[in-house]
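Researcher: Next sequence.
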Amino acid sequence: MPYRFDWAPIWANRDLIVDGFLMTIALSALGLCLALIVGVIFGTAGSSTRRALRTCAAAYVEVMRNIPLLVHMYFWYVGLAFLQLPPFACAVAALTLYSGAYVAEAVRSGLGAVPRGQRLAALATGLTPRQSLLYVVYPQALRIITPSLASLCSQLIKDSSLASVIAVAELTYQASAIEGQTFRTFEVYITISLLYLALVTVVTYGLLLVPVARDRPMQGLSDA
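Model: Next structure:
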């Protein structure tokens, strides 16, 4: 007997889907911003000339990256239940620490790919070490790692679906609830798949359009 699609139950529950979609955007956006901050800090430490900083950054990356994200979720929500953190905060913390480790590696590799002469040339012009890092090294590293960051961003959005296991009412959680009430499995998961696809596509290509990621290197310094 052929399967007959019925989209009426999905349309009737559109409010839940919209709420879940907005929650996914909020969860992904906050997790992404914090992961970028954490990644830049530990990525910079990983490229430092100081051994203690490199060791600290490497330890963070190895610990966070080698533990599954689902375990991170349970750690914050169940393991630290005595803190009584809301599920959303637990999901953001898990996504931040887990994805931050991947961002840190991307930042470290990007900083390492900038020729040392670039920084020396910046220092020779009178810039302080911090200014040379901010105005010369970081912009070039960002341009180098933008494709990797776009991939990490899309992965973080997809990873946010794991927050459904700790009762965060994001898109996958709402889809599961609707499926349980209507038994329209194909329809509801096709719908959220299209929403995830649209969100990931917009974020990925949007990040590639960031001006600093497309600018050409400063000619004078690139020749240094």
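Model: Residues 14-46 form the longest helix (33 residues). The CA atoms of residues 61 and 209 lie 28 Å apart.
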